[in-house]
Amino acid sequence: MAKADSTTKPASASNKVSFTAGRVASFKCAEGKKDSFLWDEKQPGLGLRAFASGKKTYIYQVWVNGRTQRAVIGSVESFDIEQARSEARKLSALASQNISPAKVKREKAAAELAEEQEVKRGSVTFGTVWAEYVEANKGEWGQKHYRDHINFVQAPGLPCDRGRRVTKAGCLYPLVSVKLAELTASVIKRWLDNENKTRPGVAAQSYRLLFACLSWCNEQPDYAGLVDVAGLKSKAVKKTVTKLKPRDDVLQREQLPAFFSELQKIANPVIAAYVQTLLLTGARRNELMGLQWSDVDFKWQSMTIRDKGTSKGSVAGVRVIPLTPYVASLLNQLPRRNQWVFSSPSGKDGRLVDPRKSFDPAVIAAGIEGLTLHGLRRSFATLSEWVEVPAGVVAQIMGHKPSATAEKHYKQRPLDLLRVWHERIEAWFLEQAGLRVPATAEKRLTVVQGA
């Protein structure tokens, strides 16, 4: 049976009064104590607690299940006397059922927290969770993948790094302010329809990144259940996503003379060297853009490339490939402005960013319209077959994973063995293009071509 009690000790008549506004206002903590109590005669269990700091709160104290239980009702600024008595009566009724004020307080706090979280969940926007998703996962991404996530939500009208241009809205920017709870299949379809008018390929890529983010959200306690990822991929939405055809652009042997001729007319020597090196190494475009002078060893003729295929997060995997004679001559003539081999004074971090403004006109002038920078990587793999190079050698130079058990587990080619084949590949390219080999490399190439 629950009963009201004034304190942990029996209350004296001197600290029991009928609460009035004046008595509440004048009550203070006793000198030398950290707190003092005053109890209401009208409502058993209702008390006023005054602290040495001057703060005063209404409390309720009761005896439940053999123990004194106390709960804070609220500050005197938040409750008047009648409101405090009303709260005390509610607690008293619960105490008569052996429900302690502490339990009531915990349940009330939990309910308020749940309500607050639900309000937060209902108001959170896609832009908010996108930022959290990027921050949580960027350590496992490469630089380009991370930059894509930043660019896809960038706002329009911001100053560009170069010139007087301003940024265009990222493909996902129209969804940034949409509440996650209001992200429906129809909203996504309207977004795709609009983006497909000007950039269908980018929209298709953004669509994949969007759903990767939403799947991550459903795994987070704060956002779980806010979106039905499977329901958002309706038939109408899937039909709206542009189906991208794989590219098959590749240089033909007979196109090499015109291709090299136009490349050497490019006014910017960094871009000219970069494009030729792409073709002669089969490297990925971003791998080569990230090449630093410390990665190039002219003494031992090697290049260390940060390999996408063996990288994870900020710990870069690498592959070491031969520095062939013609490529060495190209790199040796480049200006050493900073740590980047392919540097650019106008680049944000001092390196080459986008060589297509020079590359595309050169390709058109050579009569090879449609060839892309990645097509040069495809060309290296394709044209190497003219020299009858083992497929595993080409894959190792390009950074492809081994495709056969023997290649994967039994063949570990040293750099010097790769060099024999790689220099033969380069010699064949130069011969087809009608280019002279650097004098310092003529002897080595003669040996390789006769091998």
From TrEMBL:
<comment type="similarity">
    <text>Belongs to the 'phage' integrase family.</text>
</comment>
<keyword id="KW-0229">DNA integration</keyword>
<dbReference type="InterPro" id="IPR013762">
    <property type="entry name" value="Integrase-like_cat_sf"/>
</dbReference>
<dbReference type="Pfam" id="PF00589">
    <property type="entry name" value="Phage_integrase"/>
</dbReference>
<dbReference type="InterPro" id="IPR011010">
    <property type="entry name" value="DNA_brk_join_enz"/>
</dbReference>
<keyword id="KW-0233">DNA recombination</keyword>
<dbReference type="InterPro" id="IPR050808">
    <property type="entry name" value="Phage_Integrase"/>
</dbReference>
<dbReference type="Pfam" id="PF13356">
    <property type="entry name" value="Arm-DNA-bind_3"/>
</dbReference>
<feature type="domain" description="Tyr recombinase">
    <location>
        <begin position="246"/>
        <end position="423"/>
    </location>
</feature>
<dbReference type="InterPro" id="IPR025166">
    <property type="entry name" value="Integrase_DNA_bind_dom"/>
</dbReference>
<dbReference type="InterPro" id="IPR002104">
    <property type="entry name" value="Integrase_catalytic"/>
</dbReference>
<dbReference type="InterPro" id="IPR038488">
    <property type="entry name" value="Integrase_DNA-bd_sf"/>
</dbReference>
<protein>
    <submittedName>
        <fullName>Site-specific integrase</fullName>
    </submittedName>
</protein>
